[in-house]
# Entry
Amino acid sequence: MGSEGVNKKPRILCLHGFRTSGEILKTQINKWPKSVLDNLDLVFVDAPFPCQGKSDVEGFFDPPYYEWFQFNKEFTEYTNFDECLQYIEDCMIKHGPIDGLLGFSQGAILSAALPGLQEKGVALTKVPKVKFFIIVGGAKFRSPSVVEKAYSPSIQCPSLHFLGETDFLKQYGIELLESCVDPVIIHHPKGHTIPRLDDKSQETVMAFIERIQKDI
# Structure
């Protein structure tokens, strides 16, 4: 055995925000210090469905844009949700073995729900267990059928959450924390975005990486 696995880079499937892309998320994450990124093996994929409306990042990032699934105004009904879960599993098989998930916005909502759905046997049944997740600008699903399977009992795997002071999803991100066992939280002054890391948050991220390296 030896100590070969001690510094293994966690391989992370990265799920981008609504109507953006894997390339856009990669650009956003690349604001993080090299010292952090060098310790992670990040895999960026595009969501399965082409953008079905205007993207909020138009003018900031070039198309094409994609979405993971569609939803009603109340965020209680989802279209193409099962197809989305199957697609993520296919990505995990193709790029695997995947240790954990990182998600932003719609990708974060998915990332936080997947370990519970996997535990219940309704998603990711053909891939190894998700060992951790990193959430930026996340929230919980609201459909009772998904809630029941995703967050009950509480999510057991380690999780790291970024909460933006002016993020419109902040309150929902706090609600998500209540469903996680021992979440690690980084507060930042920005809105619904992937923040740069200051010295303190960089230390927190590195400590989280060291912790998960022991589990993979």
The longest strand covers residues 159-164. The beta strands are 11-15, 41-44, 49-50, 66-67, 70-71, 78-79, 100-104, 132-136, 159-164, 184-188.
